[in-house]
Each structure stands twice: as structure tokens, then as C-alpha cells.
Amino acid sequence: MWPLARLAAGAFSSSGAFLQVLSAGRYRTSLVNSLALSTAAAFVSVALALVPAWVFARERFPGRNLVRTAVSLPLTFSGVLVGFLVIVMLGRIGAVPKLAGLVTGREWFAGSAFTLTGLFLAYLYFEIPRAVMTLEAAFRHFPPELDAAARSLGAGPITRLLRVTLPYAAPALFSTLAVTFSASMGSFGVALVLSRRFTVAPLEIYTELTAFLNDAVAGALCVALAALTFGVDRLLARRAA
After folding, report:
1. Which superfamily, per CATH, for 2-240?
2. How far is residue 151's CA from residue 156's CA, in Å, rounded to a whole number?
3. pLDDT digits (tens, 9 = 90+) for 73-109
4. Of 48, 95, 158, 179, which is least surrounded by CB within 10 A?
5. How far apart are CA 165 and CA 146, in angstroms?
6. Which one-letter DSSP state was computed for residue 196?
7. How much is the pTM?
């Protein structure tokens, strides 16, 4: 609480800091961008994590531990490293454009690492493993009798997923959404490396502190970002309860 209290004190020490954050278009845009990008990354990450999380929780196959380790590996990477990995794949001379050039004669997606799409893919890269590991723990407690009963009544895989598995796992899904959303809202390293014309709140905070030495506005942005993240997190937590 002490660092947060110091941030708030610095923000409120300047009477115009919060007014500047609310009135300046660039600060509002950064907060909205963070909210939209983090929300999209959270929902897509959870959707893409459902199948691997279920497989890791319920199935046994050769090499399972090796595959699981590979999936969880991005959790050990810093945001800056993830940003450079995206550049290696989707930069102007990245692996994907070069491969596309060899196959089609045109280097598709060259430089897309520095677009909103590249930033979104970078968020997914470190959020999907987080969602998989969180949902796997929940799916381990799924009663197999429910799935067996639905199968015996003629329900197919999609029906069982929509009518049995997802409703039962709803609290875990909302908790995972909260975890991935909160991590994305605070993500800074990826945006620092990849962002060009698209800004997010952590990047604006860094700029205010390092480039302009504007502690009051940086503190106000921090408080606004924390309040926004906490509010959404509590809303999702209530749905998970």
C-alpha cells in the first residue's frame, strides 16, 4: 500500500494532474487503448486456451510434459524479449515475410510487428500460456461423470462443451479473464518495443517520467490505470464467485 499511497499523494499534490489526464486527448486515448487491447487479448486468450487446457488436464499421451513445458515457456520471458521475438517473426526482414517471399514471391506481413496487429499478437503470446495454466487447474476438478452422462444421452462434443463443460467452469473462466486482463493492462515491455503510432497507458506513464520528469501526471495516470484495472477485475471476480 505504501508505494500506491505515494503515487496517489504525488498525483493529488498537483491540482491539475487529474484534470490534465482527463482533458488531454492523448492520455484518454492511451487509457481507452489499454482497456480495449487488454479486453480483446483476455477474451481471445481464454477462448484459445480452452482446448489445450482441457487436453493437459484430462488426457495422457507421450510427450505430454514436454508439450506442456513448451506451452508455458513464454511465461518466463520478459515483455521486452517477447517484443523482440515478434520482430524476429514479423519484422521488416522477419521469418514470416521472408518465407512468404520464397513461396509466393511477395513478402507478406513485412513490418506488421510494429502495427496494432503485431502488438495484439505479442499480448496473446504471453497471455495464452497464462490462461492455459489457470484453466488446466480448474479442469482437473471437472467431474467425468457429467461428461459421461451427457455422452450417454447423445450429446456431441460441441453440445457437451457448450451445455456442460463451460457452464460448470464459468467461475474459472471469469477468474482467468480477470488474471489475463490485469496482466495485459500493466504490460509495458512489449509496447515499448513494438508501439509506433499506437500508445497504451503504461507507455505514456514511462514517457512522462523519463522524458518530461512529470511525476504528477505520471502518478495520476498510474492511479487511473490502477483504478480501471481494479474495477474490471472486481467485476469479473463477482461473476466468478
Report:
1. MetI-like (1.10.3720.10)
2. 7
3. 988 888 889 999 999 999 888 899 999 898 888 888 8
4. 158
5. 9
6. S
7. 0.86
